[in-house]
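Dear colleagues,

For the upcoming journal club I promised to circulate an example of a predicted protein-ligand complex. I picked one with phosphoric acid mono(formamide)ester because it came up in last month's discussion. The inputs are reproduced below in full, followed by the predicted structure.
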Amino acid sequence: MALRHFLTLRDLTPNELTQLVERAIVLKKEHKQGKIYEPLKNRVLGMIFEKSSTRTRVSFESGMAQFGGSAIFLSPRDTQLGRGEPIEDSARVLSRMVDAVMIRTFEHEKVEQFARYSNVPVINALTDDYHPCQLLADMQTYHEQKGSISGKRVTWVGDGNNMCNSFINAARQFDFELIVASPLGYDPMTSLLEENKSRVRIIRDPKAAVQGADLVVTDVWASMGQEDEQQQRIRAFKDYQVNPELMSRANSNALFMHCLPAHRGEEVSEDMLDQPGSVVWDEAENRLHAQKALLEFLLCNA
Ligand code: CP
Ligand code: NVA
């Protein structure tokens, strides 16, 4: 297979994505049975983190260890990237030493630039615009709970951020309808809305937006890098909290997802994460299994 990157969900075909989700479910089952499977023995993943992380770092690092390989954590504080070494030089150097690179950064263009100069697969582990690895785990979680998401209705409540943009891509690739309930001024990427208008639309009122939803999703009101806007965002999003009352307007068996970390009392009520229908802990766990399926896809089919 030619060199493949995973910068957005659009880098894999719908068929490849479905197979990957199914593979993640198998890998999860086998891992829980104690099966040793080490397809990445002696292989190394470089992990560049320019923003904080708990789930992403631990799931990639554990996944590589379980696959018989290893991972190197790289932060701008202690690499030359933080002192201004050009991305293209870093890409050329690192990709001569490691077998894949995972990047969490600000501008999406940075991961694109890195990928252009890399000889090994590059994985987007969150940019200001997209978070595709989270969507792999979310699609796996939905599939485990309810089967195929094709033809279902998903409602996004809150900020039109990187997660929301990725849900738009998921609607396209996994064939579902997406309703976005965001306050005016906080919409997802305009070009994405335009390109996907046959299946994605905005309904500003969250109560109306969740009607008929099979899945309700939210995320923090201020993402990493937007800390200065926190107070202004709390005011703009005050009517956009997901709580049991809002969930009661969705379909009776609707699921609730949040990529975490969550701010209880803001985008979710204190009790929301532990309500029946909330699958947030499974979503977090599935980062491990979905990314193992991704690493296997990118590195073992080569
Ligand atoms: N959901 C997610 O990506 O979490 P972290 O920021 O902890 O990696
Ligand atoms: N939208 C959030 C997601 C964190 C996993 C952020 O970018 O901070």
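Two points we might discuss: The domain at 9-130+284-300 is CATH 3.40.50.1370 (Rossmann fold). The beta strands are 44-49, 70-74, 100-104, 122-124, 153-157, 177-181, 200-202, 215-218, 255-258.

See you all on Thursday,
B. R.
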